[in-house]
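Running this now, will post back.
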Amino acid sequence: MIFAEPRFATAIIDERDLAGLADMNDELDREVDRLLSRRPDIKTLFLVGSCPSEVIKLDLSRAAERLTDRFMPDVRVLNYSGSGIETTFTQGEDTCLATLVPHMPASDDKRLLVVGALADVVEDQFRQLFSDLGIDDVDFLPGQQSRDLPPIGKGTRYLLAQPFLAETAMALEERGATRLEAPFPIGEHGTTAWLRAAAEAWQVDDQHFEQVTSSGRYRARQSLERYREALGGRRVFFFPDSQLEIPLARFLHDELHMELTEVGTPYLHREHLASELMRLPDNVVLSEGQDVEQQIDRCFAATPDIVVCGLGLANPFEAQGMTTKWSIELLFTPIQGYEQAGDCAELFARPIRRREALSFQ
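Update: finished.
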């Protein structure tokens, strides 16, 4: 996720500000000055609105324009809302990336754009695979350098690397880009289908595709093999939290043979998740939105072996003797691609091993 390596600067809003005794914009400018003088390496700065700034009507969009005029070309200042009132956690990345799209240079050349924050090592792995396939004009949003915004236009074909980027996808398509339909690159099957979508768009022949991907697929299968005995047949319940739930559920069921009791997600974008939904079992229970009390009742009735949920639910469930996995950990851990397939499986196997090790029965 884009917040996995954060760099925060905080302008403290206290009673003096709320009473109107201080000019909020002057204080914001002072904090930005202090930050940029201390961190001259910063090239893009985001002003993220939150509940307090919205309540006191601090206009961060105008502040961003003012500061951009002041600091460009050295620093670009952008803003978006991260208010917990109106967003889930992962929507922050979506809104952040969407603010970058209007600043991307225009080009109608045929290029591949991978959209969604990835760990540098995962980006490097994918870039090498695309190069081996003969797809050399590949960009990533966001890139490893914040000022290196890729070009976009009618020739752009883009792959989503994360399932929670609806606003960014809409902004890209308004600029002329076309989405390549694919599941998300989690596990061997998901990664292969994701790569194949790009290969077909670039007319890579099947034999060459198999040659390029065969070693990665083999390593992913080998890394998952030792987890199938530990996880196969286990029952998993997903609470709606991160919007990664459906791709993870497909991976756990399809490649590790786990049983899905319920898969909840905050928002169900059926168009972006179409390739994932078709790979789920017909009898799977899907739920959209958060009706926590009823979901808790259904969870207890389902008696799952592991519950994937947010931090607020995990400790109470653990106190009731249930095994949990924090959904936020799945955002901060590199889980995409062939080389990370085993790491993704380990995140689910570890809490089950821990529970069994602590069991005195």
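Residues 208-358 form a domain with the Rossmann fold fold (CATH 3.40.50.1980). More later if anyone needs it.
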